[in-house]
Amino acid sequence: MKRLVRRMAFTGALGAGVVFALLHSVQANSPSPIQEAIDEIGAAFARQDFDEIKTFFAPDHLVVTTYTGVSPVSEYLPDAIENLDIRSAKVEDHQLVKLGPGVYMRTYYVENQGTFHGKTLPERVLATQIWVQRDGKWVQRLYQETPLAPK
Predict the structure, then answer these.
(1) Which CATH architecture has domain 20-147?
(2) Residue ranges of domains in the chain
(3) Nearby residues of 134 by Cβ (< 8 Å), 6 or more positions away
């Protein structure tokens, strides 16, 4: 599913965090164990329920982007709330791969329009998320963006 995300207001406790990629609720082509978590975090972002959003990140979660460097989510999220301005994001070509018991990798392409601390975000990226099952709950352990040449 392609989804256009208008400017996200990062007010309250968190921004999606990031997780920039988590700003997008993308449906998998087929059901998977993590699809419910993906749908729930997408709904939490739509409601701007930042307390719930936080529950979908592992405590040892890392964010890796050209505009943040390598950051623990605990450092990145407060910064994103104040300084990440996404005017639009088009998400496509969602893929989900089981890496092993309790571990999935989710990838998709994002075409961005926005800024972080006033600097322009990469126009097109490959977003990668690693989801792990901890104590029976699916949580995101890694979010990474790889810049790509514009289409």
Answers:
(1) Roll (3.10)
(2) 20-147
(3) 58
